[in-house]
Specification:
231 residues, alpha+beta, Arc Repressor Mutant, subunit A, 11 helices
Amino acid sequence: MGRVYEFLANTADGAFAVDRRQTIVMWNSAATSMLGHRASDVLGRKCYEVVRGRDASGCPVCRSGCTAFEAARRLDAAPTTELATRKADGNAVWLSTSTVVVPSRRRELSVLAHLFREVTPRHQLVRIVQEFAALVGDLSLPAGDANHAMNDNKVVAIELTRRERDILGHLAAGESTKVIAERLFVTARTVRNHVTHVLTKLGVHSRLEAVAHATRNGMLSLCWLGFAALG
């Protein structure tokens, strides 16, 4: 276990470890640099009380018995997670976190190691893309069509499958075909097929137009639009 702690202490990524009660037992200097919390301030505290991570919709990710912790208890692989938190100075930051179980012959000594790095710039770009898509959507609607839309009480529902809605959300997040495929555990060809179906159903010709249309018509759920609330 000492060699594991030494490795975590020296990694360039932020890292901390928790015991089976989710109490922080190790916090490296990179974690201090990224989040501003000193090891002396967090050791012995519950990880979810320190990190207080939330997803894009503002729902808590860090909590007692979180997904990563329960997966570790089952010895299952925990997926890489992106979460929003705040530094010690109150500034918002996005982190990409990976979780590794460090087993011990004495089960009570096993720990859960979290490694993380900052991904705030990418999420800021996502927000810019969404705002731009909304602006393009507003500008792309001719005045005559806009007046017609305001005077027409009929709403045409566009039926997207659950997977197509997922794809649309990932497009709104500015993700590439490769990234979407990795996140959804499908092939790039499958993603491209879904994108084609989405564009056809929405009656648009590009991914940006699809996001603009979805933003203008309230088709994107809050889970894809929540970063603005953290700014």
